[in-house]
# Entry
Amino acid sequence: MKKEGENANKPDNTAFTQQRLPAWQPILSAGIVIPGFVVIGLVFIAIGVALFLTSKNIQVLEMDYTGTDTGSPCSKCTYNVSCKCLLTFQLDKLFEGPVFFYYGLSNYYQNYRKYGVSRDDYQLFGYISNLKNPGNDCSPFQYDPTGQPIAPCGAIANSFFNDSFRLFHNVDGVDMEVPLDGKGISWWSDYNVKFRNPELTNGTLKDTFKGTVKPLNWVKPAYELDTNVNNNAFLNQDFLVWMRTAALPNFRKLYRRITEGNYSSGLPAGNYSLEISYNYPVAIFQGQKKVVFSNVSWMGGKNEFLGIAYLVIGSLCIVMSVVMLIVYAKFQVPDEDL
# Structure
């Protein structure tokens, strides 16, 4: 009986269960390891050089408009609400297109946990029940002081960035407005999957949002963010960009593209002025605001770190191969000991 019990637990007599499958194990000899490190190092260095040179060729123009610096054209707006200022700059050569226009914020912690979860995803997905009864995660931006529900609720929506910009190109003494394209600036998954507008009531969003109030820091309710009905409420492109929170305290978010009309190939050399509607206060938390103009390449935006990282790793591989070659030649280490 004991022998039968032992046989009952015995695996089947197959190549897989008895571990008799053919296998291959590389033998690491000096003739394989050292050339391998050299090849890997050269490949990494080649990729690093390509990435670094590509990144160096990407054009970036950054301008701070916080207004805290002496002589800044926006200094009058630092502590004022709904103020306008004019930022001028000059381009000495063509700023190749397509040009991406970003706004940037510093010392702004969107990654703070209580801030990051302060939203109602069901409300943002268009559920009527959550539109009128926001989730508790939105507190204290769940209801206004009179007890009416806030739509959209939460700290992220309440702190929605609301500075606006108009760009002008001075041509023969005349300021020509540069068209800024705001279509499709949000993530595809946000616009098509994660966010939805609630069903229309009487054919309008205004009636749908009846019984709710705008976030405390907003000037307009959600259904009046844009004159284009397809770019309103929870599907507004600027709102979607803001709701995708940043991982680091210094970040930039896409505001517009410059791809239309006479500027489809980029911004020509010349004088420009940027009209800023300064609405968003940052001085209270020692933050900074900036605008960024940039173009991109096959590797994305400007990022010299990636190229440098490849160069460092490739160089280390080459150095290690030289060290191993010296050790092998000097001490004649047998291949089987490597």
Remarks:
- The chain has a mean pLDDT of 91.
- The CA atoms of residues 228 and 236 lie 9 Å apart.
